[in-house]
């Protein structure tokens, strides 16, 4: 019997703080003006994407004791942007990254419940933890919360927020055409939580929202992060977009669900993915090389190398060979507030590997950084990109992709106009939205469904 084709999930990542955007391109626009967010969101909705995704940047990044000035340095508040986008879209999901280390459950639950009401059931929360005390210096808590406690706090934070969301029931309210809406049950919204990290009680003052709870995303890659996602997330934001690594990650995370009484389809795997389109595959490959060169200037290459070497390399020629000195071990002090630092957990081994690659291919510092760090996920004609995305999803390397264009805000337009119609012709992507909420788009059950049966996608 032929296996039915999986439906592909697509989302759009407004990049914000990043090394992806080609800032020098004349089409590159503001990352703070609302018009940029609105254009991006409307394009995603026109293409029938599931949701828009916003990351979070809570402190200006530094390198060598100075503000890192080679990419964008700020971003508006997540809830403010998403609430504004709710007014200019009708169907698109609105996903925001909100930190569990520096916030409080009541505050965050109230904000997401409000967003879910304002948007008609389109809110989603990407739950993350802080990973450095540098960012935490901006907050009372983060400067001293030990790393080993951050996931413990995140788990209890999410559980507490869910208790607040669930403190209202549908039958707590009565609608009267003349009198409006009033309470039937005086106990509505009451909650008590006593745990290791939170000891709170009171009344939650936002009624049950259209989705019951926002859709929950998780973005951690560690073993703790994968387990956290398997226990309570609806989707995981992965960095494994290649076929082989994607399949390995997919299998690992999905295999963890059964121990929590969940099925494989209860958690979606959605890697971030970049793309370059051309009229032909050859044209796209040439354009992709040009984009990578523009993303990684000589100065950017040196700064990236400092992530691993943990020392000042400003005296080195980016078009010359790699440093012959080894990385400095110990606490990282050169690059602060950058997630990339976590990727290189064994700097000495990374340096050895990179020297071998550079020697084998005659790569300069800049060549190495381009080839190891800035490869686009999908490159080719629209037909090739559509075929590859579908092949990856059908091969269980992902359930879909969160697309990150290299131009903001117009970089998504070509994908929407040229690739999406081909996926629709294949019957693997929707031609219209079939429900009003983000849970409908993602095929996720409503939390009030006692049977836990999966909603129709």
TrEMBL record:
UniProtKB keywords: Flavoprotein, FMN, Monooxygenase, Oxidoreductase
Record-linked InterPro entries: Diverse_substr_monoxygenases, Luciferase-like_dom, Luciferase-like_sf, NTA_MOA
GO-annotated molecular function: monooxygenase activity; oxidoreductase activity, acting on paired donors, with incorporation or reduction of molecular oxygen
Residue stretches making up the Luciferase-like domain: 23-395
Binding site residues for FMN: 97, 151, 222
Record family assignment: Belongs to the NtaA/SnaA/DszA monooxygenase family.
Name of the featured protein: Nitrilotriacetate monooxygenase component A
